[in-house]
Prior knowledge:
With 481 residues, this protein is mostly beta strands.
Amino acid sequence: MRKETPYILSLVFVLALQSCANELPLTGGEKDVDPPVAEKFDPPNQSTRFATKKITIEFNEFVKLKDPAKQILVSPPGTQFQAAEKGKSIELTITSTLKQNSTYVINFGDAIVDNNEGNVLHNLIYTFSTGDILDSLSTSFKVLDAFTLKPVANVKVMLYDQDTDSLPLTELPYYAGTSNAEGKITIGYMKPGSFKVFALLEENKNYIYDKPNEGIGFLDQPVNAGDSVPLRILFFREEVANPKIAVARMPVAGMVHFKFNGNIEKNQFTLLSKNYPFDTNQFEFMGNRRDTAVYWFKPRVGDDTLRFMFTRKLGEKDTVKVYPKIINQGKNNQVTGAEAVKIKTVIPADFDFYKRLEIEFSVPLDSLNRDTILITEEGKSIPALLKPMDGARRKYYLDYSFKQSKNYVLYFPKRSVKGILGTYMDSTLFNFKTSNEKAYKVISLNIKHPSLTGGAILELLDAQDNVLQEKKINWADTNLV
């Protein structure tokens, strides 16, 4: 369990956008394609008695290098290299003198992408030793948002074999890695010793803290290579005083994606297009913060271009014009290029009987055929009463009181759910069983922390540091069950 005092922070993205009512036609979308796969290393990865200067890595497809001078990190620091792409392979040549009896770790960062779609192979590691032994110590970390205590992904955890607070401003790290979706990162092939630790969510990806909006975290004390317990890093994001639009694009008609370099409010937006009314309910923040949003609307045939005005907190007005990559033809009342409606929620096979069942759809819904959607309890079926959780009509909850130790089936027939973009959901079925109160234990806590005031977040974790339950508390609430 952990108690942390909340902080107010903001996730930082910075991209350029002209202001003062300049129109910016931003369009396009990405394809979900797998990154390249490394199939052969020459010399083999993790080689000892390494004596060559050239390393060749072959992939399953054509690849190219992106900003290799910034992205590729070699330890020990100061090792000079040249990198070149050659069809389905890349070559890295070390141009400086190798140290005797030393382990070298090459982290390719985000330098390797496929040739067609630009999909990134993140953090490919190549290591070798010039002696008989390869350093084998490792240290694990978990990066958490200092305010919410939620895991933070894509944060660089950087280790230095020096001990000054100015290191991330001026020096490249000795070792580095990137946190995954669970905020976890393990850095391996470490030499014995102690290291200063910083975490950085950087904009320009150069392993240097050189932008005022880049979030940062650190550990107060150096860590020893090989520490067996995962170390938690609290990650802070600075609040941006005057946020602006970083990205605006319309992957398909009816769905506009926005990213901002700080937290914003819905009332900062105005829809200039007279052919569509602005519905604040359809402006939906994604996640727990207010820096990423989607504006949903029901497009008309051949009339799917929108112009927005965004008023920044200091008064500047930005206008942006967005339109889909594929113009909507509206055949069969379906938006061109729109995918079928899907349920994003994963219902566990062993469902906690005391919880409310919440369903998140991939898009807001236009209609539900409530008579055909069924909840079945031990073979007895009744219509499932789904109620919207907010005005966006993308998240619903099942108005139903579950019983303990019962088998349930939630069934959505084909075309029983229609999305705002005109597509339907295929038949979907969930089988699950509710838990029994005998499987739970009650924990009673008497909380005393005289040095802190205000609120805190209490977490119940499992052995793998996954959050099982979370509760916000006030220090006045000294007894908690």
